[in-house]
Amino acid sequence: MYIVHSVVTIPEEKADEVIGLYQNRSKLVDEADGFISFKLLQNRRKSGELTVQMEWETEQDYLKWVTSDDFKRIHDLEKKYPDKELANTKAMVHQYKVVAW
């Protein structure tokens, strides 16, 4: 199994807006080969810190997704979001190979 965390820090007053966007996400990734699950996590102590957690069968499945046309389409839409501060938010991406459970 392969897990990817994409961590963003946004102004706390915009957290609910961003959470709403993810609650209504396109779900295109859900159809990708090897996709297992998607979760949006909110830091208990820093409400402006959000983490997208995705689980994949393999690293290759994840890499296939991030080079797909659907991935590019979704992320191009994010760049066009009307709130320029949110549109320009950069995520810190952490990738993990599950080695025990």
Q: Would you spell out the secondary-structure blueprint of this structure?
A:
Elements (H helix, E strand, L loop, with lengths): L1 E8 L5 H9 L11 E8 L6 E8 L2 H8 L2 H11 L4 H4 L4 E6 L4
Number of helices: 4
CATH class: Alpha Beta
Structural class: alpha+beta
State the strand order across the main sheet. 2-3-1-4
Q: How many beta-strand segments?
A: 4
Pfam family, one: ABM
InterPro entries: ABM_dom, Dimeric_a/b-barrel, Heme-degrading_MO
Organism: Alteribacter lacisalsi
Protein name: Antibiotic biosynthesis monooxygenase
Question: What do these coordinates show?
Answer:
Strands 2-3-1-4 form a 4-stranded antiparallel sheet. The relative contact order is 0.29. It has one domain (2-97): Alpha-Beta Plaits. The chain has helices spanning 15-23, 59-66, 69-79, 84-87; strands at residues 2-9, 35-42, 49-56, 92-97. By secondary structure, the protein is an alpha+beta fold. The longest helix is centred in the last third of the chain and has 11 residues, at 69-79. The radius of gyration is 14 Å and the shape is globular. Keywords: Monooxygenase, Oxidoreductase. This is Antibiotic biosynthesis monooxygenase. It comes from Alteribacter lacisalsi.
